[in-house]
Specification:
With 254 residues, the chain is of the alpha/beta class. The protein is built from eight helices and 13 strands. The strands form three sheets. It has an eight-stranded parallel beta sheet with strand order 5-3-2-8-11-12-1-13, covered by helices on one side. The structure holds 6-phosphogluconic acid. The site of 6-phosphogluconic acid has 14 residues, from loops. It is found in: Cytoplasm.
Length: 254
């Protein structure tokens, strides 16, 4: 269920990820009129820009108008704040699209609820959960969730050893004490990630090698990224060779 694809070059990682996204997009659109995807922050926006916008052969296969974009985690700041994951996606992907390209439908946090005290953070999480896609009354998982892997093994805003790792009911929760700034965020939980049809991680650079060694090591690390690998959802890792140097994993090409 867990596959790893590795390339020497960053551009090749971006293009492989783009081919993978397009494959899932096309499969999904055979039976649905929407392709539902979640994006994370970090370096992912740049990788998407390289693969889905700047590679002409791939760019023309992206059916943006049928995309519904969610965020696997979001910082509780205004949408134009430099810390906003939406802001990053807007800058690196939406604004980088040619002006003639159709725009995806992007589901952001309810910005009007973001305040200075954090008193509405639970409400923001609940509101986002309300807006997840549904089949009748039941919330359904996304077609694809794209994740990053922090050097500490966190993903979404699920941090090692944090109580939120034990959440077994709610699909979106807020966190007030993220060890990585900014502290106030909302995040997908494991119960929601478990509903996903596909999950892909992107991890690049030698700085990721020690944590990937733990995640893919024989001994259980309990790190959030490893817990995602164990959800039973098809998980694909797109990495560069430097990130899996000395990591015990069999990598192929997508
Ligand atoms: O909201 C966040 O803090 C980011 O989404 C974060 O989870 C990121 O995905 C990882 O830290 C990996 O970041 P890089 O891809 O930049 O290594």
């Amino acid at each position: 269920m867990v596959k790893t694809y590795s390339y020497a070059d960053s551009q090749d990682v971006a293009e492989a990820l783009a081919r993978y996204i397009i494959q899932i997009q096309n499969k999904t659109l055979n039976h649905s009129d929407k392709f539902k995807i979640a994006i994370s922050g970090g370096s992912l926006g740049k990788v998407l820009q390289k693969g889905l916008i700047q590679s002409p052969e791939l760019a023309k296969q992206v059916k943006w108008h049928q995309w519904e974009v969610y965020f696997s985690d979001e910082r509780l700041v205004k949408l134009d704040h430099p810390d906003s994951n939406y802001g990053l996606f807007n800058q690196l992907v939406l604004q980088a699209l040619p002006s003639s390209a159709p725009r995806p439908n992007v589901v952001t946090i309810k910005e009007a609820l973001v305040n200075e005290t954090g008193s509405t953070d639970e409400e923001i999480a609940k509101d986002y959960e309300q807006r997840l896609p549904r089949d009748g009354l039941e919330v359904v998982g996304l077609d694809l969730v794209l994740l990053g892997c922090g050097p500490d093994g966190h993903t979404c805003s699920l941090f090692p050893g944090h109580d939120l790792l034990k959440e077994n009911e709610k699909l979106i929760v807020y966190i007030a004490d993220s060890p990585k700034p900014p502290p106030r965020r909302i995040t997908f939980t494991f119960p929601y990630l478990k509903k996903s049809k596909n999950i892909a991680f992107v991890a690049e650079g030698a700085g990721k090698a020690p944590v990937l060694k733990q995640i893919f090591g024989e001994e259980k690390s309990g790190l959030p990224c490893e817990l995602v690998n164990e959800l039973g959802v098809p998980v694909s890792w797109f990495v560069n060779d430097a990130a899996i140097d000395d990591v015990d994993v069999i990598a192929s090409k997508f």
